[in-house]
């Protein structure tokens, strides 16, 4: 069982001068769900090398058992420092793909042709794809074989407009995940803000926020073992 985890390479929060990147819990929690189940993990990003960490995600308030375990794990940190470039990835080498969020993916992965092709090709080959928090936004340009949006008519979730409002970035992000999923025909639903909420529609698994990361990974594992 081989799982590819795709991370952002984007580190600028719009024109604010502040840093962004991937959200640590959204990598760490799924990483250990997969690792503890015996999966082989490969990390990728558009530029390769060490992807940028959203500095906020490593503040004390956002640390968890999984993030502390990851920080102390030399093997995990070596993997993080040496992500492979997304343009070298072939979906045929993997059984499933997982996308952590953070705000970074809204700028790069959402527009990245390699990411778009990876998702459409993985799903077309009957393999599951899971995305959490802001990462469902990277589905915005992914199409089915029939040319329609990959989310059209599908049950999906992702970071809510009210959660974005709460972090004060509604007018900074290039688009709102909730609005984009609805605009593309997704059957969008959500749970309470900041609580775990995951939706599965066939091979497509989406989680609402950081708290949903572990559950999304567990559902991806179940999809793999069916």
UniProtKB/TrEMBL annotation:
<feature type="domain" description="DJ-1/PfpI">
    <location>
        <begin position="25"/>
        <end position="221"/>
    </location>
</feature>
<dbReference type="GO" id="GO:0005737">
    <property type="term" value="C:cytoplasm"/>
</dbReference>
<dbReference type="InterPro" id="IPR029062">
    <property type="entry name" value="Class_I_gatase-like"/>
</dbReference>
<comment type="similarity">
    <text>Belongs to the peptidase C56 family. HSP31-like subfamily.</text>
</comment>
<keyword id="KW-0346">Stress response</keyword>
<protein>
    <recommendedName>
        <fullName>DJ-1/PfpI domain-containing protein</fullName>
    </recommendedName>
</protein>
<dbReference type="InterPro" id="IPR050325">
    <property type="entry name" value="Prot/Nucl_acid_deglycase"/>
</dbReference>
<dbReference type="GO" id="GO:0019243">
    <property type="term" value="P:methylglyoxal catabolic process to D-lactate via S-lactoyl-glutathione"/>
</dbReference>
<dbReference type="GO" id="GO:0019172">
    <property type="term" value="F:glyoxalase III activity"/>
</dbReference>
<keyword id="KW-0456">Lyase</keyword>
<dbReference type="Pfam" id="PF01965">
    <property type="entry name" value="DJ-1_PfpI"/>
</dbReference>
<dbReference type="InterPro" id="IPR002818">
    <property type="entry name" value="DJ-1/PfpI"/>
</dbReference>
